[in-house]
Amino acid sequence: MRKIEEKHSGGKTVKFYNDKGNLIEEQLYGKILGLFYSLSFTEKYLYDDQNRLYKAIGYCANGDLAWKEEYYYHYSKDGVLLKLVTISERGKDYVNFEYDKKGRVIAENGTLSSGHKYRNEWDYDLKGNKINECHFDC
What we know:
Layout: E1 2-8, E2 11-17, E3 23-32, E4 36-47, E5 53-60, E6 65-75, E7 81-88, E8 91-99, E9 105-111, E10 117-124, E11 130-137
Antiparallel strand pairs: 1-2, 2-3, 3-4, 4-5, 5-6, 6-7, 7-8, 8-9, 9-10, 10-11
């Protein structure tokens, strides 16, 4: 397991990664009186046997559950991600993905549990770098 600590003006973040390089835990600390750090929040991440995130859980400093999200991936027969469903206490969010002939994501259409719909689109240059990003509310 690998541990990375990042300090910032309001405190610090400690991240733990598993042997596959996946973030498995993130601890957020606030700075108290500018003198010492106090744990304020912990997030834990779980992955399936194919290295895909399937659950994220947030805990308050006292260990109480703050939130939980589960992720369900839908793939084509060729292994291309077509749809992601996120389930949380807010409800279900849906994202459908579109790809160009080179297999790059060029658009995503989403519906949030609130009913809000959106579309994001990306363009690429000849080297495959993203050069344009557009966001639309539907």
